[in-house]
Amino acid sequence: MRFFDGFKSILPEYCIWAGVAGVLTLSLVYGARMKRPEFSNIHAYFRRPLAALEKSSLRDRFLRRIKWGLGAPYRVLVSSREARAVVRRRDRVSLLRQLLESWWVVARYEFEPRDYYQYRLYDPRNWARRGQYITQRQNLRLLRGVLGPSPLFWDKRDFSRDCEAQGLPAIPLLAEWRDGRLVSFVEDWPDEFYSKPALGYHGFGVRAWKKGSEVRSELERFIVDHGGGEGAVIQPRVLNHPDLSGLSNGSLCTLRITGCRMPDGEIEFLLPTFRMPVGDSPVDNFGQGNLVAPVDVKTGRLGMGRRRDEEGVIWSVESHPDTGQSVVGARVPFFEEALALCRRAHQAFPDPPMLGWDVALSEEGPLLVEGNYLFGSEAPQIAHDSPLGEPRYITCMSSLLERAG
User: CA 121, 123, 124, 125: dihedral to nearest 10 degrees?
Assistant: First the structure.
């Protein structure tokens, strides 16, 4: 009874809020249909061709927008409470402004509340470009729509062999877990190596190992306990280039270079990002609490580092937290060679036309680590403090939608 009594006390306010949200949602739905889509709102620009590709009816799209808009107030109010408090103290942005702006991007662009904070949309410069930011869910929906269930590079066990067949330098395989057993390709393993789930993503399930008398039996137990049914790969530890020693905790740093094939056949690179592991992390994935920084395509130098805390707030980081070395201005070795390697890889694997390449930078030169056809959109936009929805991305994605349609 106490619950219902409490609900009755807030019912008038909630009804008013829901009514206002309903009216504004209807205006958003019809406004989006009446106004001609422009590049300033890429979500409206891609909505109709993607809906046609997914064969969704006008009724389904209308109900989806209504449902999303009416649910926006609840998602905004219950989500990102800690983030709101941090931004209010640090950036002096009022709670009212945060709530209103969060609701607007959730209802208008189908963002999640956390996207308002991780893309720093409370910054006036980013707010002015809010319609060009792409959430992870929206990017994956677009990629799945235009590329389909592509098997390319989905299994890490095949990636090294595919690269070897094309003459592309990549981290080799020591062994693989297939059909419930460990199949080794070399007799003598190095002193240090890594195990990775064959179908893993975001760095989950990766573990570093050191050579020992019982290591293989322990390795097999670990693989079985961590999704061994899907397989695993064993690869040697690759050391960073000496120039990168101060930008890592000892684990491997990588470049994420997203390449797209333009309609004229040229390969363009979007928001190249450098990823740095921190603390005791064996991987450098941004989603694991690590550090990212933008790379200047012309100079190969890093900009301001960025890191996301547990509340989802983005912090600027000038120096690596473990070593104290400055991130800003640091030069990435073999950067031009890494771009050239990704261009070769893109030409060797022309389909799909848009791929995210992970590149390690060893003392001997760049090495391909992975190719991702469902690449993440969060880390590059956060690192560059800039939206992915720029003209090159739009041109490439538009051509893919036309081809898929």
Answer: -90
Whole-number Cα distances in Å, 110 to 42, 70, 94:
12, 11, 23
Q: Where are the domains of the chain?
A: 2-133, 172-236, 242-404
Buried b (16+ CB within 10 A) or exposed e, 135-151: bbebbebbbebbbeeee
Q: How far is CA 186 from CA 213, 219, 236, in A?
A: 17, 16, 11
Alpha carbon distance 68, 268 (integer Å): 34
Render pLDDT for 287-331 as a digit per residue (tens, 0 to 9).
999 999 999 999 999 999 999 999 999 999 999 999 999 999 999
pLDDT greater at residue 286 or residue 155 = 286
The structure's pTM equals 0.86
Q: What is the pLDDT of residue 228?
A: 65
Alpha carbon separation from 98 to 83, 261, 297, 314, 405 (Å, rounded)? 10, 38, 34, 15, 39
- Residue 381 or 28, more confident: 381
Residue 223 clears pLDDT 70, i.e. is over it: yes
Q: Is 242-404 in CATH node 3.30.470.20? A: yes
What is the model's pLDDT at position 26? Answer: 46
How far is Cα 167 from Cα 348, in angstroms, rounded to an integer? 9
The answer to whether residues 305 and 274 touch, using CB atoms and an 8 Å cutoff, is no
Q: Helix 136-147 and helix 391-404: axis angle, to 10°?
A: 40
CATH 2.60.40 holds for 172-236:
no
